[in-house]
Amino acid sequence: MRARWLSLLLLAACSAPPAPTALPTRQLSAPTLAPSPVIPILSSEQLYSATLSAGRNNPTAAALPNNAPLPPWASAANAEGVQTVAVTLSAVLSVQGDLYAPPGQRLPGVVLLTSERTAWGALPLALQGAGLAVLAVDWPAAGRPEDVGRLLESFSELVAVDPGRLAVLAAGQASGAALRGCALEALCDGLALLSPSQADADALSQVVPRPVLVVASQDDATSYAAALALAALPGVQSIQAPSGRGANMLASSPPLIEALVAWLSSVLRSAP
Q: How far is C-alpha 185 from the geometric centre of its chain's CA atoms?
């Protein structure tokens, strides 16, 4: 019996071990996905270098407080020292003009308003020769009284202009906006109107006792009547021109240029 059990143990020891589990032979039959593209991360200079230009960010404008008036944007001066400027008055209105203001000085200033600034002729240079800074702009038909105030504020931001001594000289259709604008704006220290379109006594009462001058010729019956009505009010001076209307009166009357220069110089030199 013992011999039989011994024989069985020997036979079990000599039997082969069980075969291992076979590895799977499956393979991927779908196409391999392409790798995701590499997204470049570019700097601002790389992104916008082709569209940026010098002067896009103006340091003067950037340094101003929120909603502050922007000074006139001036080009290089010509041989006579005159600069072409652009003045932003609102989000929808910008005006073009000429600036007569020598650098390095702080001078009383005069703003000239008419539809075409070339009509002033020799007056701007005569005012500059009298020691005044001058801004002559093409005043649009859509110009409002508050735009006159914004123009004075913009002009006063120039280092060559004394904001405490500013006057407005307006001709023709610009005279109405100038009169009502000076009534609203304390920066206006004096007002001269050439061929005023109407006599606005209410607005004039808000301008005086600041100096006011009206000029008209009998050639234009409407403005002559308005000038007479304004001149009849207290504190208003008047000059009768020999002929013409608006700024065109200056071309035919050199003495009128001298009279305007003398009046504006006197007003601004005596301004507080």
A: 18
Asked if residues 187 and 153 have their Cβ atoms less than 8 Å apart, the reply is: yes
Rounded to whole angstroms, the Cα distance separating 114 from 103 reads 25
Kindly report the number of other CB atoms within 10 A of residue 194's CB atom. Answer: 33
Cite the DSSP H helix spans in 144-214. Answer: 145-156, 174-184, 201-207
Q: Which residue has the tokens 């301008």?
A: 207
User: In the block, which residue shows the tokens 């991927």?
Assistant: 28
The reported pTM is: 0.75
The single-letter code of the amino acid at 198 is Q
Q: Which residues, at least 6 apart from 254, have a Cβ–Cβ distance to it below 8 Å?
A: 122
Question: Given this model, what pLDDT does residue 43 score?
Answer: 82
Cα 235 to Cα 226: distance, rounded to the nearest angstrom: 16
Residue 112: strand pairing partners: 136, 169
- The residue count of the chain comes to 272
CA 193 from centre of chain: 25
Give, in order, the Cα–Cα distances in Å from 74 to each of 58, 78, 85, 110, 265. 12, 11, 4, 17, 25
Give how far Cα 23 sits from Cα of 20, 26, 30, Å. Answer: 9, 9, 21
Q: Dig out the tokens for 118 from the structure.
A: 């070339």
Let me know: does 224 contact 244? Beta carbons within 8 Å.
Answer: no
pLDDT tens digits, one per residue of 145-176: 999 999 999 999 998 999 999 999 999 989 99
Q: Which segments in the chain show pLDDT lower than 70?
A: 1-18, 24-30, 51-68, 79, 271-272
Partnered with residue 136 across adjacent β-strands are 98, 112
Residue pLDDT, tens place only, 39-50: 888 887 777 777
Per-residue pLDDT reduced to its tens digit, 86-120: 998 887 888 999 999 887 789 999 999 999 999 99
